[in-house]
Amino acid sequence: MVKCEKCGVETYMPFRCNYCGGYFCEQHRLPEFHDCRGKYQEAGPSSVRIGDYSTSGSFGSYSTSRVIRPYWFSRTELRDLAIGLLVITLIPLFRVWEAGFFRDPTVIVGYVAILVLAFMLHELAHKFMAQRLGMWAEFRLNMMGLILTIFSFLLVQGAGFPLMIIAPGAVMIAGMMNWKEYGRIAIAGPVTNIAEALVFAVIFFASSEGDLAWLMGYLGMTINSGLALFNLIPFGVFDGMKIFKWSWRVWLIAVAVSGAIFLYTIL
Question: Which of 123, 138, 181, 196 is catalytic?
Answer without folding.
Answer: 123
